[in-house]
Sequence to fold (752 residues):
Amino acid sequence: MDFNLTEDHQMLSDTLRRFLADNYDIETRGRAAYAAPYHAPEIWAGLAELGILGAFLTEDQGGFGGTAEDVRVIFEELGRGLCAEPVLGALMGLHLLSRAGRDDLAQAIIAGEGRIALAVYEPQVACDLKHIEARAQETADGWQLTGRKSAIYGAPGAQHLLIVAQTGQGQGLFLAAAPELIPAAMVDGGGVADLVMDDLPAECLSPDCADWIEAALDLGRVALCAEAVGAMDFLIDMTVDYLKQRKQFGRSIGSFQALQHRVVDMMVELEQCRSITISAAARFDGPDRGRQVSMAKNLIGRMGTRVAEEAIQLHGGIGMTWEYPGAHYAKRLIMIDHQLGDHNDHVLRLIASQPKAA
Amino acid sequence: MDLEFSPAEKAFRDEVRSFLSDHLPRQIADKVDAGKELTKEETLQWQAILHARGWAAPNWPVDYGGPGWDAVQRHIFAEECALHSAPRLPAFGLNMLGPVLLKFGTEDQRRAILPRILDGTDWWCQGYSEPGAGSDLASLKTRAIRDGGDYVVNGQKTWTTLGQHANKIFCLVRTSTEGKPQEGISFLLVDLDTPGVEMRPIRLIDGGHEVNEVFFTDARVPVENLVGEENQGWTIAKYLLTHERTNIAGVGFSARDLARFRKLSGQLRRDGRSIADNPVYSARAAEIEAELEALRITNLRMLANARDGAAEGAQSSLLKLKGTQIRQALQELYRSALGPHAAPEPDDLSDNERVVPAESARAAPVYFNHRKLSIFGGSNEIQRNIVAKELFRE
Fold:
């Protein structure tokens, strides 16, 4: 039993924290995250240079990490720094490229040469892959895709797009070069896109690989959970500081028990969220991956929202302002629940995996 | 990150498991499972079995008859006992007075008192709370006034758990009214057959007799029965509040209760389907399970911290808060799964007259009984105060 970070992970974590603290303040974020390309290219280049993307691949694949624990360590810091760079799409994309043996492209991406995103979900699909409707057809000119994709994180400006579509054999994975997208900023910052495909030509990486795709999504879910833990940790610290410093009725409002107890409950939930994320990352390569990940995503979806709402309330009016960084942390925490299946989707996944009682 | 117990710890767990399978009397475990009250004899029967194995006092050192386990072993033992529905041994002697004497008592006191706790000769109960001193324990008023070689004790204690089985009580008493209230409290051992000591039962919300009140009228207690220094009682009480709190998260109890719910939900049908197929119950159980899984890891993280020598601080408060919330949520789930069949008073029906599985008959009384979890041992509000004190320290 050992819950300490390895020396390498501690170093990775410290380095990333320092990089974001030095280069990515809330104003930089605000300028980059809400206008095309919805991120800061110099920050992206900096992350690539630090090896953040390389940490998503194993040494065999040309990286120097590749475990769910690497993902957890990195995303906790991205959450603490409220980083809106398109790392989630890159993580899932790199994972799938490696599975498909496209190490050449993966290498280019971890070097910061081109970005990749993953198009899975559709207007009627938010978590369960088997309901995907987009279809792939093999023609004399190669594969062509038809259908609609939505919620493609980090897609605006990406040169490569991975697309999931039904092939008749199962859920297949396709690679397309920068198709025309319908881009938007997310309410919590960062880019997202929808895609309408009408005989879109694409390269087939596998005609039947639902297990790869689910694994990539599960890794993305661990990333989101870790990001939420980092954001919650920072937001609770901000809240405690604010309560200590804010004076009303001639005393610091942090001296009021009604407020203190609410902060304690937030802190208890943070530790619970941290624990379930540690568990989901540590057991990622075991037989219980899906259940562990869904437990984590469910708990974090619920508690991230609770912590965010409480933080806004405890700050009072200032927590409602765009100017106050805490507001953006709260917004991110709540919107994380909407990504890669929300707490209800993951309860359904847990129920489906529950062995029937005798 | 390594979430697993070491090979040696796993071997220890296997040893505990096989001991429990071989030696825990089935009839006793079934009673625990069904939420029935155990007799004093049944509890002592189990204590004798553990004592014969050297396991009756998990947190005592070898010199005094304990197994000399570390924090991880104690945790494993407590969790396995809960999962196997072993009865809880009388905690006030084994888990509270024992460690207090080891830390604050004299060698004479240890040699005289500890063996009798270990073999079940003495059953200790606790005299802390008073009608006017609950969460504000330091305001306690039971007086102990020195008179020659005795203290003369006057006052009233309450919420004395299983006092009806006990022959001894350890008390916090006021020996001084000078200075801050905390500074005038002493830790005193009292024989329950001392003239002037009277115990009366309190009937609880579930109808059971679990707690009592104890009255002291000019009860004479020899000064040798003082533990530690006079007026050092508050230090001792605080020590017990942050130490010796193995299993405060109760993960084993919750894991057992969740398994019981799943078993029950497969057996109960309501309005055309099994409770196991009812999406509302399934969703609630899945969410509680996620919280329990998180708590299991939180507990291990804090255990690893303690093993590595980090300060315990507010961690046991956190475990108590979340642990009791989960245990209460599971009791609520279990009770509600029975629907209308939770209503009949269990003692009015025999097992074969019931329309629901007999082992679930006590669901409602047990649920009511478990409301105590967030009140006793430092109410959950007091636990929040403890954490807040650390968080808001300037």
